[in-house]
Amino acid sequence: MPQAWSFAFARLALLVLGALVVGWFTGFPAAVLFVALGGYVVLCLVRLYRLSWWLQHRSSEDPPDLRGPWGDVVALIMRIYRRKKFHKRRVLQLLREFRHISAAVPYGIVALDGDRQIQWFNRTASRLLSLRRKVDYGQRIDNLVREPEFVRYIAGRDYAQPVTVRSTVDRENYLSLQLVAYSDTRQLLVIRDVTREARVEAMRKDFVANASHELRSPLTVITGYVDALAEDTAIDPIWAAPLREMERQSVRMRAVVDGLIELSRLESQSGEAGDDEVDVPAMLSLMRKEHCSLERRPREITLTLDSRARLRGVESELHSVFGNLITNAVKYTPDTGRVDIRWWTDDDGAHCSVRDTGIGIPAEHLPRLTERFYRVDPSRHRSTGGSGLGLAIAKHALSRHNGTLSIQSEEGVGSVFTCHFPKRRVIG
Ligand code: ADP
pLDDT by residue (tens digit) across 309-368? Predict the structure, then answer.
């Protein structure tokens, strides 16, 4: 027990003893004891009152000078009070620093709760999204940012990549928005002004689209003349081989230009593909027939239709997807090999696989296969006359249909390219 308290108890005991002795001498022990204890209680009440008054005015008044256990209590309160003040100052300092840091960050940051309601945002977010302090606190972010791409993004589950939307403040500008989880339910919305990147990207797309369109006409003329010359019997036979090579190269160039034009067309269409009804089984049957009539082709090309389901989409784009996969399978499979096409549906949606027993692809090339102009082996590429754009086009068109492409391949054994379409794109 602290010393002050021992003294206090000893003092009280002495008081009681003294009162009893005085009471015994005077003949009124009860009355004397009552007076002594009453005085003691009054003294305690006075000290309690001074303590309580000081607690109420402690920010401006010095602590009362109390003795004994009351002094201990005051010292204890002072210690707690000083510690609290220190922590409060530290928290305030941290908060001020956090505010400065968050204002200096070149990105907009919005803290959202589990219901996607705004809890806090920094100055950049306020500028980029035109958010108003206090007024917009508690508002749902999708009520304030109503761009369809963002609404779709936020309703989805995949936040690994940001989404780019037009700024609502200035329609000429573009913003990149990404959700990042920072607890089980809470998320941060990170906003970046990507106007410059978007403009450069738009310029690149325009340039590629214009250049390919401009190249198409002269190329058609050149190809026509080369074809005519190659067939002209009056030409010196010494030119036969160079003319054949020119013919081959012009066909390749034509394929590259056509591929670039198709890719540009796909890129210029923003958002998801439309939802016309596309009869995929009929399309695949026709494609199989077309490839079967080719002069050079694998011995067997089969089609297995496990479903008659159709797809919601754009016919020309889906034609491009399946056409590129089947053409590749036929192109990269020797005459003795086979190509099997299959169309089926399951709980996840619809799928189309194109399996071949061709030359296959080494594993290290698989992740980059759908990049533009990516070649597994440039010499192999040259001999097949491909554009190097087929898979890039297929992937782009697929993603416009919310689909994905999976590739399995083993060098020297063959490959399987499978397109997966979500349920909502499937009819029947
Ligand atoms: P290309 O016009 O050259 O075929 P793609 O984009 O369609 O361009 O294909 C990219 C590369 O992927 C090809 O150059 C080829 O090396 C490889 N590839 C695509 N499909 C197959 C396949 N079925 N078997 C083997 N290699 C393939």
Answer: 999 999 999 999 999 999 999 999 999 999 999 999 999 999 999 999 999 999 999 999
In contact, 408 and 415? CB cutoff 8 Å: yes
User: Does 337 sit in the ligand 1 pocket, CB within 6 Å?
Assistant: no
Which ligand 1 atom lies nearest to the CA of residue 255? 2
3-class SS of residue 110: strand
Query: Both tokens of residue 363?
Result: 């594993």
Confirm or reject: Cβ of 341 under 6 Å from ligand 1.
no
Amino acid at 254: R
Work out the average pLDDT over 10-36: 92
The pLDDT of residue 382 is 55
* Rounded distance from Cα 373 to ligand 1 centre (Å): 10
pTM: 0.68
Question: What is the C-alpha to C-alpha distance for residues 346 and 339, in angstroms, rounded to an integer?
Answer: 23
Give DSSP secondary structure letters for 247-302.
Answer: HHHHHHHHHHHHHHHHHHHHHHS-SS---EEE-HHHHHHHHHHHHHT-SS--SEEE
For 321, counting Cβ atoms within 10 Å of its Cβ (0-12 exposed, 13-18 middle, 19+ buried), the class is buried
Ligand 1 site, residue 164, Cβ cutoff 6 A: no
CA distance 314 to 272: 10
Longest dimension (CA), the chain: 156
* 8: confidence class by pLDDT, cuts 50, 70, 90: confident
Q: What does each C-alpha distance from 313 to 50, 343, 351 come to in angstroms?
A: 83, 16, 14
Report whether residue 387 contacts ligand 1, using a CB cutoff of 6 Å: yes
pLDDT attached to residue 156: 82
Q: What is the pLDDT of residue 383?
A: 57
- Give the position of tokens 């009520």: 143
DSSP assignment of 196-249 equals HHHHHHHHHHHHHHHHHHHHHHHHHHHHHHHHHHHH-TTS-GGGHHHHHHHHHH
Residue 390's Cβ-count burial label (10 Å; 0-12, 13-18, 19+) is buried
d(CA 408, CA 405): 10
Q: Is 361 in the pocket of ligand 1 (CB under 6 A)?
A: yes
Query: Which pLDDT score is estimated for 347?
Result: 94
Separation of alpha carbons 282 and 305, rounded Å = 10
Band of the pLDDT at 231, cuts 50, 70, 90? confident
Return the pLDDT at 234.
87
